[in-house]
């Protein structure tokens, strides 16, 4: 690990101004991802600005939304009674990620900003456009099993690792930030970027912009929601494919639905095409399969991850069928 400076600041405004003034500085909260990357010398900040105590560590119920402070730990979020009752998909997603020890440290803000676990990104001896722009993407001709089938580019096929972010994408969450240009609110589905020709930029955040909280609108049928994750081992493994879903069915018809996929793209993938196909349709296995096919029509798998297309289709059908009470 390269030497670095550490600084504690009194408030969010000071944190933003301190980081903005140093292009090589980074925020430190739980550090569960950043410190690993620093040990690998993938991340080499010259200054760490400690923000752990600057944002709220509470989950607050408001009349129209639940506000999650950026410093809420993953363990606290998963265990929160309001979250478990109102958004079981979110609690399930958080519990599906990492180990208990890591969840005790990892924060809501940091979870959203964790970087890809692509083995080539984490190996400084291999070319990687995300780590060093213009050097190439080793994964395209290498080990492809964990990589993207949607939204990838010639420059990068890495996937976003967060489970929590997939559930929040399905729930229409909004991310609140404070930055050099002032406060703003960003729909979570717009927070992360697809790689294009600029894969080193994971999000739309400015340098120095700090996540302060996440708002999740209250959605009646989100109480009937579910998160399912397919992975190579039962504990502490990132998703090959995951599905976050909530569905509202009345008299055998899908009145509304929320659906997002993980492990398939550079960002949490909101399945808008599938949702559009489902609204107003019969709640049936056939309709669920047709909707999944509509979403996956744009998939561009590589030889090493072609299985993800069928896996994603089957998982969408399975989760929606269970939520809707439809036998398969």
What does this structure look like?
The protein is α+β, with helices and mostly antiparallel strands. 29% of the residues lie in helices and 21% in strands. The chain is built from 12 helices and 12 strands. The protein has helices at 12-20, 34-39, 74-79, 81-86, 88-95, 100-105, 108-113, 164-170, 188-191, 272-278, 285-296, 307-324; strands spanning 5-8, 25-28, 47-50, 59-61, 65-69, 174-179, 182-187, 210-217, 225-230, 241-250, 253-262, 269-270. It has a 5-stranded antiparallel β-sheet. Strand 6 (174-179) and strand 7 form a beta hairpin. Helix 10 (272-278) packs antiparallel against helix 11 (285-296) and helix 11 (285-296) packs antiparallel against helix 12. The longest helix is centred in the C-terminal third of the chain and has 18 residues, at 307-324. It is globular, with a radius of gyration of 19 Å. The mean pLDDT is 97.
Helix content: 25-40%
Number of strands: 12
**Number of H/I helices:** 12
Order of helices and strands: EHEHEEEHHHHHHEEHEEEEEHHH
Strand percent estimate: 15-25%
Average of the residue pLDDT scores: 97
How does the overall form come out from the CA principal axes? Answer: globular
Largest sheet: 5 strands, antiparallel
Query: Strand arrangement, largest sheet?
Result: 4-5-8-6-7
Q: Based on helices, strands and strand pairing, what is the structural class?
A: alpha+beta
- The Cα radius of gyration reads 19 Å
Give the distance, in angstroms, between the N- and C-terminal Cα atoms.
52 Å
Spans of at least 5 consecutive residues whose pLDDT stays below 50 are none
């Amino acid at each position: 690990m390269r030497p670095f400076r550490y600084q504690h600041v009194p408030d969010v405004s000071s944190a933003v101004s301190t980081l903005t003034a140093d292009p090589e500085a980074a925020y430190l909260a739980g550090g569960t991802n950043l410190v690993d990357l620093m040990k690998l010398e993938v991340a080499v900040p010259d200054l760490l600005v400690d923000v752990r105590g600057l944002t709220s560590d509470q989950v607050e119920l408001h009349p129209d939304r639940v506000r999650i402070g950026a410093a809420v730990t993953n363990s606290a979020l998963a265990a929160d009674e309001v979250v478990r009752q109102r958004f079981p998909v979110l609690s399930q997603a958080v519990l599906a990620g990492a180990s208990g020890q890591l969840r005790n440290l990892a924060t809501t803000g940091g979870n959203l900003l964790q970087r890809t676990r692509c083995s080539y990104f984490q190996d400084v001896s291999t070319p990687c456009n995300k780590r060093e722009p213009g050097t190439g993407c080793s994964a395209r001709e290498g080990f492809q099993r964990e990589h993207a089938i949607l939204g990838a580019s010639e420059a990068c096929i890495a996937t976003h690792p967060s489970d929590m972010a997939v559930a929040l994408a399905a729930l229409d969450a909004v991310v609140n930030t404070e930055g050099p240009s002032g406060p703003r609110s960003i729909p979570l589905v717009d927070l992360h970027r697809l790689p294009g020709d600029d894969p080193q930029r994971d999000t739309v955040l400015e340098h120095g912009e700090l996540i302060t909280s996440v708002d999740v609108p209250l959605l009646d049928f989100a109480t009937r929601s579910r998160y399912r994750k397919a992975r190579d081992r039962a504990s502490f493994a990132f998703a090959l494919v995951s599905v976050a879903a909530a569905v509202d069915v009345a008299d055998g018809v899908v009145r509304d639905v929320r659906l997002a996929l993980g492990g398939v793209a550079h960002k949490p993938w909101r399945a808008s095409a599938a949702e559009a196909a489902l609204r107003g349709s019969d709640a049936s296995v056939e309709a669920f399969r047709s909707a999944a096919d509509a979403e996956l029509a744009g998939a561009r798998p590589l030889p090493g991850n072609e299985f993800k297309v069928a896996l994603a289709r089957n998982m969408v059908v399975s989760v929606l069928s269970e939520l809707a009470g439809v036998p398969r």
